[in-house]
Amino acid sequence: MIRICRSSSARNRLTSFWETGFFSPSRRRRRPFYHLCSNVVVSGRQMAKSKYEYVKAFECDDRCLPNSWVVVRLDGKAFHRFSAQHGFDKPNDERALRLMNRAASAVLRDYTDVCIGYGQSDEYSFVFCRNAQLYNRRGTKIVTNVVSCFTGHYVFHWPEFFADTALIYPPTFDGRIVLYPTDDNLRDYLSWRQADCHINNLYNTTFWALVLKGGLKPVEAETRLRGTVAADKNEILFSQFGINYNDENQLYRKGTVLVRRRISIDGENEEKGPGPRPGKKKTDFQTEIVALNVDIIKADFWKSNPEILASRATAV
User: Fold this and answer.
1) pLDDT tens digit string along 156-165?
2) What residues contact 206, with CB distance under 8 A and at least 6 apart?
3) How far apart are CA 83 and CA 161, in angstroms?
4) What is the mean pLDDT of residues 233-251?
5) Which of 88, 114, 217, 257 has the fewest CB atoms within 10 Å of its CB?
6) Residue 206: helix, strand or coil by DSSP?
7) What pLDDT score does 214 carry?
8) Which pLDDT band, with edges at 50, 70 and 90, does 166 fall under?
9) What is the band of 26 on the pLDDT scale with cuts at 50, 70, 90?
10) CA distances from 232 to 228, 239, 245 (A)
11) CA of 82: how far to CAs of 44, 96, 101, 168, 173, in Å?
12) Measured between alpha carbons, how far is 225 from 206 in angstroms, rounded to an integer?
């Protein structure tokens, strides 16, 4: 039986235990009431403590530093094998790249604090606004949710891009989170990833031209390209195969930039200028995710898209 509490505070605690289910007839214990009342956590509501809760002290505080750009980059795990097993075209498979863009667009739709995304090959980077408070800026929560969201959409939308190719096994992606304190640091990071796209694509384009069109074995093509610079590879492509690398698809050479655009209901981009003219009906706009294959190393991109670096999270 429960002893009757004389103090109002004790009675309130007892009532709370009954209402929350921590003290129900099926779970009653033969414990003194003063002990029962001491097992209370004060954080907005009353609840019983477990003696095992001390293990929470082992969790690390991994909150990202405030006022810094939060970048999540994910990479395909063992995608050389994955692409070979699923018959990807060489040196580039447009279906695979557009599938990556499709999954990345879903991330931007689900996480409105992402102000820009950049992807190439089997990797994608997502930049969160400086003041983003997603998951209280807990790094592990952010990176695991982004990678999970991306991977889920990659698998879900696979049939749209590979209608005749069934998944033999599910792809996996790893993820990391990096903080950049200044706008220049962020721009340099994105420039690094686009420069990496150019270097890798030029090599792969030349390598597979030597293999598929030149008749070399992969080992021979690798030996042929060892020690070459960009000018040498361009010369091989043009002189041996009549390929002008500058004419290659921008999707392959530049990668893909995902940005948000305000689109009018009739499909026109929002004009940057004064408000609606007198006598004209105000146009309604909606935000859409737009994929661009442009140079983000030069300043032109950032001058024409100042809202990216000036972006603020919608909810803080």
Assistant:
1) 999 999 999 9
2) 225, 233, 236, 237
3) 14
4) 97
5) 217
6) helix
7) 96
8) very high
9) very low
10) 6, 10, 12
11) 50, 11, 18, 9, 12
12) 8
Query: Hey, is 224 helix, strand or coil?
Result: helix
Q: Going edge to edge, which strands form the sheet with 256-264?
A: 173-180, 69-76, 123-128, 114-120, 256-264, 285-292
Angle at the Cα of 258 (from 254 to 261), degrees rounded to 5?
130
> With 80 as the cut, is the pLDDT of residue 14 above it?
no
Surface-to-core class of residue 215, CB atoms within 10 Å of its CB (0-12 exposed, 13-18 middle, 19+ buried)? exposed
pTM for the structure as a whole: 0.79
- Cβ 173 vs Cβ 76: under 8 Å: yes
Give the length of the chain: 316
- Measure the CA dihedral 10/13/19/21, to 10°: -110
* Cβ within 8 Å of residue 131, ≥6 positions away: 66, 67, 312, 313, 316
| Burial label, 191 (beta-carbon count in 10 A; 0-12, 13-18, 19+) | middle
Contacts of 15 (CB under 8 A, 6+ apart): none
> For residue 163, what are its two tokens?
């209608």
Taking a C-beta distance cutoff of 8 angstroms, is the pair 128, 143 a contact? no
Q: Return d(Cα 68, Cα 285) in angstroms, integer.
A: 30
Q: Position of tokens 């293999």?
A: 211
- Residue whose entry in the numeric block shows the structure tokens 């080992």: 219
| Residue indicated by tokens 């099926």 | 26
What does the alpha-carbon distance between residue 12 and residue 180 come to, in Å, rounded to a whole number?
50
Q: Is 306 helix (H, G, I), strand (E, B) or coil?
A: coil
The whole-number pLDDT of residue 244 equals: 97
The least confident of 54-68, 105-119, 215-229, 262-276 is 262-276
Q: What is the pLDDT of residue 28?
A: 47
